[in-house]
Amino acid sequence: MSTVSALSRARASLARRSWGEAYAELARADAAAPLDIDGLEMLALASYLTGRDEEATRAWTRAHHHAMELHEPRRAARQAIRIASGLMFRGETAPARGWFARAGRVLQGHEDCAEQAWLHTWDAFTRMWSGDPKGAQPVFTAAAADSGRFGDPDLLTMSRLGEGMCVLLQGAVPRGLVLLDEVMVAVTSGEVSPIYAGMAYCTVVAACIEVFDLQRARQWTTALARWCDAQPDLVPYRGNCLVHRCELLQLEGAWADAVAAAHRACELLSGPIRWDSLGSAYYQLAELHRLRGEYAAAEETYRRAGAAGRPPEPGLALLRLAQGRTGAAAAVLHRALAETEEPPARCRLLAAYVEVTIAVGDLAAARAGAEELDRTAEVLDVAYLRAVADSAAGAVLIAEGDARSALRRLRVASATWHRFDAPYEAARAQVLIGLACRALGDPETSAMELDGARNVFAQLGAEPDVERLDGLVGRPVAPTPGVLTARELQVLTLVASGRTNRGIGRELGLSDKTVARHVHNLLTKLDVPSRAAATAYAYEHDLIEHPATQN
Questions:
Q1: pTM, entire model
Q2: What CA–CA distance (Å, rounded) separates 214 from 245?
Q3: How many C-beta neighbours within 10 Å does residue 24 have?
Q4: CA dihedral for 53, 55, 60, 64, sign (positive or negative)
Q5: Which domains does the chain have, with CATH numbers?
Q6: Which residues form the HTH luxR-type domain (predicted)?
Q7: Residues contacting 364, CB < 8 A, separation 6+
Q8: Cβ distance 262 to 77 under 8 Å?
Q9: What does the alpha-carbon distance between residue 467 and residue 509 come to, in Å, rounded to a whole number?
Q10: Cα dihedral sign for 320, 325, 330, 332?
Q11: Which residue has the higher pLDDT, 488 or 233?
Q12: What number of other Cβ atoms are within 10 A of residue 25's Cβ?
């Protein structure tokens, strides 16, 4: 009776999506007396959804063997498919294929069943991810038709998801996104089980970001965050959600929140089971380090991204550009573009390529990159990519001396960035507008645009952009009395610890000259005569933590 009661309580917990409670109840019951096949299936589900992947695999494996002993091949195959699905989703393709092969062997003689349709569906995903979306699409379409006959909403969701992705990958972006929206209607209405709902959420959000449809990505990321938050014990999809959320927070200018999300995503995705999206989490964190001028941290984190399987371009090339290593930056992007064929992936490189080739004076290459961005933006027809293309074209036109034409493109880009609530990108466009106005003999508007951009950079903590802009206008912008930037607070903290300018530079990845300028600015803002006086002022006014109170 105790086992029956435990299973009943576990079912109730699963119905409430209290995955942790269900796992604890089932694990205790299993330790007292081995669970039957129904109990093992519940234990596997609860284990998987609480991030205990190895325990989930063991429970599903036991359920698989029980089903074989009971001469229930379809049920045994379903357990194998569930194991393989989880492995495939987190990028462990070799063991996944092994379990799919076992399911196929078990199903010999059972050709017309939902389990066979599942095998066809996952085989189609493999074909799609291997570069054959055209060949995979009819398989997904057939599986979707079969799902209604078999009464399997999960199969319908995953086959429609695959069909939408195939359409998207073949370049029919608007139609593909509509199909993915249809998938998400079923997911958000609760028609899909949690394992496949999570897979659909993560896949759709990633697809929207891949084709630069940031408005859709924001909406579905918000829905994914709500779905995760409604299940506090849920682990598998939370890290992926945070990666997407980090990218959107960065775009929106909420950089402190983005850093926190990136750190948490790295923690969730790095252990005890490593997910293939870990590299993307490291990459997003590295991007934030780079934008804030934390070059040593950016260097290390880009390398972690690469080690985890996410190429560090274009971010690493932009880091090299910021470090003054323009030749290295150009070499990285030339090589990366030569290896990249898919138009969306090339676009992620091309914006940086235009910036770097302008910096090295190769205007022909910059023009070619901007024109390719234009062509792809025309085909994909999404506002975000159009703004990227307009910004790149404006930068090239300024470099070529055609400020009037540049201004027209840049005004359009600026309006789009403001509509997207993307302050950093808007400020970068504003800098170019200021330069175009200066070239057209309008110094007053130029100064207004450049000062406005500088204020945005300072508020965001984009210290490298502040420094570049100050150098660009040929004069230091007067510091605001008493208000330190995030970078100046970092420098002040290190000054108070007794570091020399050279030591501070090594810590933050800055040149001695840049550190000296930060020290000068913070002394001016605090109206103090020396480093010792700045240290005393910082402690007295709680600008930094006193050593006695540090952990």
A1: 0.79
A2: 11
A3: 16
A4: positive
A5: 2-235 (1.25.40.10), 237-312 (1.25.40.10), 479-551 (1.10.10.10)
A6: 477-542
A7: none
A8: no
A9: 14
A10: negative
A11: 233
A12: 24
Q: Which string of DSSP letters, residue by residue, matches 490-547?
A: HHHHHHHTT--HHHHHHHHT--HHHHHHHHHHHHHHHT-SSHHHHHHHHHHTTSS--G
Angle in degrees, 0-180, between the axes of helices 383-400 and 403-419, rounded to the nearest 10: 150
530 vs 421: CA distance, rounded Å: 41
Task: Determine the residue type at 447.
Answer: A
**Number of CB atoms found within 10 A of residue 316's CB:** 25
User: C-alpha angle 375/379/382, rounded to 5°?
Assistant: 105
How many whole angstroms separate alpha carbon 189 and alpha carbon 97?
31
Reading the block at residue 373, the tokens are 């961005």
Query: Using one digit for the tens of pLDDT, what is the confidence trace for 240-257?
Result: 889 999 999 999 999 999
Q: Per-residue b/e over 346-382, b at no fewer than 16 CB within 10 Å?
A: bbbbbbbbbbbbbeeebeebbbbbbbbbbebbeebeb
Q: Please give the backbone phi and psi of residue 302, each rounded to the nearest 5 degrees, phi first.
A: -60, -40
Position of tokens 């005393």?
536
In single-letter form, the type of residue at position 76 comes to A
Q: Average per-residue pLDDT in the chain?
A: 91
Token match 């599986």: residue? Answer: 143
Q: Quote the CA–CA distance of 462 and 466 in Å, as a whole number.
A: 7
CB-CB contact of 158 with 200 (8 Å): yes
CA distances from 118 to 58, 147, 235 (A): 21, 9, 25
- Rounded to the nearest 10°, the torsion over CA 10, 12, 18, 23 is 0
The H helix count followed by the E strand count for the chain is 29, 0
Cβ atoms of residues 360 and 366 within 8 Å: no
pLDDT of residue 50 exceeding 80, the answer is yes
Distance CA 312, CA 332 (A): 10
Amino acid (1-letter code) at residue 458: A
Q: Sorting pLDDT into bands at 50, 70 and 90, what band is 498?
A: confident
- Single-letter amino acid, residue 321: L
CA 209 – CA 518 distance, rounded (Å): 37
> Three-state SS string across 203-217, please?
HHHHHHHHCCCHHHH
Cα–Cα distances (Å) from 116 to 75, 79, 88, 269, 291, in that order, read: 12, 13, 17, 32, 49
